[in-house]
Structures are given as C-alpha cells and as structure tokens.
Amino acid sequence: MQVIVVGAGIWGLACAYACARRGDHVTVYDAGRVGDGASGGIVGALAPHVPDQWNPKKQFQFEALETAGAFWAEVDALSGMASGYGRIGRLQPLLSEKAVELAKARAMSAVDLWHGRYHWQLEDRPETMSESSAPFGVVHDTLSGRLNPAAATTALAAACRAKGVQVLESHAVVELANNSITGPWGTATADAVIVSAGVAGFDLIAPQTPLHPGTGVKGQAALLDLDMGDHPQIYADGVYIIPHANGSVAVGSTSENTWEADGTDDKLDTVIAKARAICPLLADAAVKVRWSGIRPKARRRDPMLGPVPNLRGVHAALGAFKIGFGLSHKIGDVVAAQIHGDPVEIPESFTLDWHMAK
Ligand SMILES: Cc1cc2nc3c(=O)[nH]c(=O)nc-3n(C[C@H](O)[C@H](O)[C@H](O)COP(=O)(O)OP(=O)(O)OC[C@H]3O[C@@H](n4cnc5c(N)ncnc54)[C@H](O)[C@@H]3O)c2cc1C
Fold first, then answer.
1. Which of 273, 297, 321 is the last residue of a domain?
2. pLDDT (tens digit, 9 = 90+) per residue, 144-155?
3. How far does residue 32's CA lie from ligand 1's centre (Å)?
4. Which residues contact 267 (CB under 8 A, 6 or more apart)?
C-alpha cells in the first residue's frame, strides 16, 4: 500500500514504522521537524495501570509495556542510536495502613494478572526517599520502564528511514480529502492517510466529526543534573522522578487545561521543589533543562483510533495524551492492521466512534 502519515511525533512514526515493516511505501509529512510536538520531551515514564479490576484497557497497556523492550532494542539496533529504554521499575509511597492493606491485595492480584513475570511488592522506604514522603514504605512494581522521549523519537525516525520511509519536514498539511492531503507544497494521494498530528490533528479532522474531537493539555517538566543509574523511577505526590540513562533525572509534570503562554513558569518550580522534598539527592542537582509541551487529549481521554467519518481512506491515530510513549509501538501495529483491513482487537474506548457517542 501507499501510506501517508501526517505528523512525525512518536505515534505518527510508530504507525509509519509498523506500515513499513509490512512492506508499505510510507511518506511522513510534518509541519516542522521530527519531535517538534509533545514527543520532543524529557520525562518518559512507561507505567502500568494498577493490577486489579482488570479490563481491556489495562490488558492493552500491559501488552504494550511487556513488548516495549524488544521494540526499542530493534529501533536502537536499526538506527544506531539510543532510545534510553530501560525497565527500571517504579516506587510509589504508602501513606497509611489502609494503603498498605490495599497494596498487599494488589500484590496478590498482580501474580495472576501479570502472569508472575513482574511484581507489585511492598518494600521498606529506600534511603533515596525522605522519611516524610513514604511513612509506611513503598510499593515497588517491576513492570514500569522509562525511555528518553526526544532521543527515542529521533531514533524511531532514523529507524523509519532505514526501513525506506520518507520523512518530509517543513511540510504542513492544511486539509484532508478522500485518500489525500493538501498543504502549501501541493497535494499528495495514497491508499491510506493516517492523521497523527498530535493536538493539531484534532483540528484537521474536526470538520468531519459531529463533536470536536479533542484538545490540548499543557505540561511542564525539568531535567536535573544527577546520575541515579537504573534506580527505579519514583511516583509520589503527583510527581514523576525518572532517572535516565544519560546521567540526568527528569521531574514532572504539570497538567494545565488552560494557560496564558507557552514555556515554563513558577508552576514548574513547584514540581521541582516537590521532587526535591521526596528525593533529597536532588536537592543540590542543577536544573539543566526546563521544558513544556502540549499533550493531545481526545474528548473522552482515551486514544482515538479509526476511520475519519465522511472521508475515504483517512484514519485517525490521535489522543496519545499522557501515555503516548508507553503505548506507541502497539498503537502503530494496531493502526497498520486497521488500514490493511486485518482483524484487530482494541478496547472499545479507543475507537473514534466511542469518542463521538456522547
Ligand atoms: C510535560 C509532559 C510530560 C509527559 N510525560 C510523559 C510520560 O512520562 N510518558 C508518556 O508516555 N507520555 C508523556 N507525555 C505525553 C507524550 O509526550 C505524548 O503522549 C506524545 O508525545 C504525543 O505524541 P503524538 O505523536 O501524538 O503527538 P506530537 O508529539 O505532538 O506530534 C505531532 C506532530 O505533528 C506535527 N504536526 C502538527 N500539525 C501538523 C500539520 N498540520 N501538518 C503536518 N504535521 C503537523 C507536529 O509538528 C508534531 O511533530 C508527556 C507530555 C508532556 C507535555
């Protein structure tokens, strides 16, 4: 098939890669440069849902997290670059006796739901966390991972090129039509068009959808100068602390439904202060990077995949929101299967139809 992908963020590239693996001729069009959107970020937590009250969404994410290591190893090998992937696990503080009891129950259910391959285990507070941050110890899950978002996106673009994908930068798409896209550079046609332009993708498909498909949620994060090796990531007090392979630690993020300006402000200082209170090792670590981006949030929060109404051969892969990196390679496989007409199971809440139902 001839396939056009609109957007060179992590989802567009994952779709392009999955199609190229099937032998399709793929061209990616990006308005700016690879990773210009939310995917050019610095946090990169790949974290599971809690192992109880199982449902198709949790299963989908489990399968994505479980296969992430093999996928990113393939990308690293093909690109000759480093995505920064590592299954480092995650620590979450226990704040009460009640939380301890709940964690014990989840430790049991994780054995079945995670097939004994990963654990949800109770541990004493590590020395890297302050006493006040984890008064009843921590839960350590061994399924969570991390990657370096900007590096992973660059590596995936290189892997796509190695598979024969053409990635066209500075090629904005302003209009969609049956099997085609148009921009200031002209018009291109294909058997299938995949719209994966992050938050701007919602506006591209909005003329065809009965309800506005989605919006942006701003996030701010920082990179601190400290090498914590493969210490598990920490999620506490609403803040992620992610040790990266390149000797830095990411802390984030804010979640802002409205904002006055792009860039970072004092809300990020609050996040950094919280992270330092949780992990005193960070107290003297210099802030190397302050970063902000806009997450694409579909109108009912979950990913939005499927044919765009009223347009032949145009498919949405939108709504990566806060979990875009953890799901990316599986989303790519699903979307490639969908445009090829192959049977594929996804949670109902991931379908464009579901988002438009209310
Ligand atoms: C502060 C912050 C922290 C985050 N932390 C995590 C985390 O820990 N773990 C996680 O999994 N996710 C995290 N996310 C979310 C993650 O970054 C997103 O889910 C993901 O990057 C979205 O990828 P995307 O490909 O859908 O969109 P984007 O990365 O935004 O890519 C869209 C692309 O489309 C291009 N484009 C836009 N308009 C057009 C057009 N008209 N024509 C052509 N191209 C166009 C853009 O230039 C861009 O390259 C975080 C996000 C933020 C902001």
1. 297
2. 999 999 999 999
3. 13
4. 220, 254, 256
Query: Where does ligand 1 bind, in terms of residues with CB under 6 Å?
Result: 6-12, 29-32, 36-39, 41, 43-45, 149, 172-173, 196-198, 200, 219-221, 240, 252-253, 293, 295-296, 320-326
Which residues make Cβ contacts (< 8 Å) with residue 170, sequence separation at least 6? 30, 31, 32, 33
Whether 125 and 167 share a structural domain: no
Ligand 1 centre to CA of 295 (Å) is: 6
In a domain, 324, yes or no: yes
User: Is 269 among the domain residues?
Assistant: yes
Q: Which residues pair with 241 in a beta bridge?
A: 234, 251
Percent of the chain with pLDDT over 70: 100
Shared-domain flag, residues 281 and 229: yes
Nearest residue by C-alpha to atom 41 in ligand 1? 173
- Residue nearest atom 48 in ligand 1 by C-alpha distance: 37
For residue 70, tell me if it sits in a domain: no
Same domain, 222 and 196: no
Structural domain boundaries enclosing 289: 87-145+216-297
How many domains are there within the chain?
2
Amino acid at 11: W
- Tens of pLDDT, residues 291-306: 999 999 999 999 999 9
Confidence (pTM): 0.98
Whether pLDDT at 171 is above 80: yes
